[in-house]
Every structure is written in C-alpha cells, then in structure tokens.
Amino acid sequence: MFNDIGVLELTTLVVLAVLIFGPEKLPKVIQDVAGFIRKIREFSDNAKHDIRSELGPEFKDFEFEDLNPKTFIRKHMSESDDLRELKELRSSFDFSKDLNEVADAVNDTDSTPSVPAAVNGSSGTPDLLKKRDQSVKDERPPFDSDAT
User: Fold this and answer.
1) Where are the alpha helices (DSSP H) in the chain?
2) Which of 44, 45, 94, 107 sits 20 to 30 Å CA-CA off 115?
C-alpha cells in the first residue's frame, strides 16, 4: 500500500504525529485509525460481495480492478494468444511501400500510369500525372505526414 514511502518520509510522519497528538494520545489515535480502516475495508468487501451476488453466476470471476481500462486491456492481452496474432497481422501490412508508390505517382516519377488509358479517353497518361517542365520536376513538394 505504501510502496513509495521512504524511511525519511516515514520518520517525518512519526515525528509529526508525536508532536501533534503527543506521546500519551498517540497509541489511542493509532487504534482509532486502524479500526476506521478495518471498517472501511469490511464495508467495501460487503459491497463487492453484494454486487457480485446481484450480477449472477456468469460474473462470478468479475474483478473490480478490471474496471480500470489499462488493467482490463493488460489482463486480457497477456492471457490470450491474440497479442501474438496481432503482431503477425501488423507486420503483414507494409504501408511504407504503398506510401512510396503514392508519392511517386503524385510526383510523376513512376513510369507506369496508375489509371488506365480508357478512363481519361486518351492513350497517354492521365491529366493529373502529365509530365511537368524540367524545372518543376526537379523540385519535390514538401511532404506533410500529418496532412495525409
């Protein structure tokens, strides 16, 4: 529960507790706080038990920690083989090749037209892919990855 409290912080808390409550009242305060924490835990456990019993037998293994989206995803991804399958599926897509083909088509560096001649009614390249003059052809337009 208190994994991130170091020795210095714990010592500071003890000294402050002694200064605030005094050495005579400190044991009684500690007992009262411990009893209060016990009652809160008991109330929480009873509420969880009531909710599980109301949900029915199909939710008997339901954990309230799963309501946190990060915990839910981590639990289900680590327990199944879907993660391996997702990695294989992701590696099968090569978007860089497709992106390079599109960039070449836009910049008219591809020698084969991507639109058949019958579409635009001529035997040459489509209007969008006609060759530009030499000065414009050497300049590559800026590429904005966020815009695409």
Assistant:
1) 7-55, 69-79, 82-92, 95-107, 117-120, 134-138
2) 94
